[in-house]
Amino acid sequence: MANHLDLEEQEQLDQLKHFWNQYGNLITGLLIVVLGAFAAWNGYQYWQKRTTAQASVMFEEVEKVLRSGDLVLAERVFSDMKERFGSTVYAQQAGLSLAKLAYQGGKVDLARGALTWVGASQADAAYAAVAKLRLAGVHIDAKEFELASKVLAESYPASFNALVSDKKGDLLVAQGKGAEAIPEYRKAWAGLDARAEYRRLVSVKLGALGASETAVD
Questions:
Q1: Which DSSP string do the residues of 6-74 spell out, in sequence order?
Q2: Largest CB tally within 10 Å, which of 38, 80, 82, 182?
């Protein structure tokens, strides 16, 4: 009986050796690939968390500088942030904050540059959309109507359709095309949530053009 079991064990060992000789290198290679991918993924996750944490700290510093009103220093710090953490949403947020302060301070070129950068960033589509809408507004105020139209013709998330229509209406009004602006404002009004405060502003814009929110005038 013992000899029979010994023979079976020897046969199994021989089969295992044969299998390993035939497929061992392939299995080892696959294990190396799998384990390497797992290590790379963990490394990427660690790098991403570390980068996000560092970007968050730097964003707080940018905000402090912006609150001080020092646009020269703010621009320098933002440039550094773009270079080091340009792929993060914190860089986009910093760009939006800088653009707002710059525009209020009469530094239109600086505001335009920051908004253009944020609008082109792929870190967060919503922040990019906000930047492009604000950039269109800057162009409209400067009577740069072709540039505003070009920005508004770009791609936006579906959730921004109403706001894009509203901005298109603003552009048409600025061009003296009030009648053409009405349909855009109506699309904006219809697309905004009934509870949205901004919807009331769109109603005011329509009223100023002698129109109601619907097509029945």
A1: HHHHHHHHHHHHHHHHHHHHHHHHHHHHHHHHHHHHHHHHHHHHHHHHHHHHHHHHHHHHHHHT-HHHH
A2: 182
- Evaluated on CA atoms 35, 39, 42, 48, the torsion sign reads negative
Reading the block at residue 153, the tokens are: 């013709």
The tokens describing 167, both together, are 């901005």
Gap between the Cα atoms of 173 and 190, Å rounded: 19
Encoded amino acid at 11, one letter: E
Query: Which tokens go with 198?
Result: 């901004």
Measured over all CA atoms, what is the biggest interatomic distance in the chain, rounded to whole angstroms?
105
pLDDT tens sequence for the chain (217 residues): 445 546 566 666 666 666 656 666 666 666 666 656 555 545 545 445 555 666 666 777 777 777 777 888 888 888 888 888 888 888 899 999 999 989 998 999 999 999 999 999 999 999 999 999 999 999 999 999 999 999 999 999 999 999 999 999 999 999 999 999 999 999 999 999 988 899 999 999 999 999 998 875 4
How far apart (Å, rounded) are the C-alpha atoms in residues 193 and 46? 40
pTM (two decimals) = 0.73
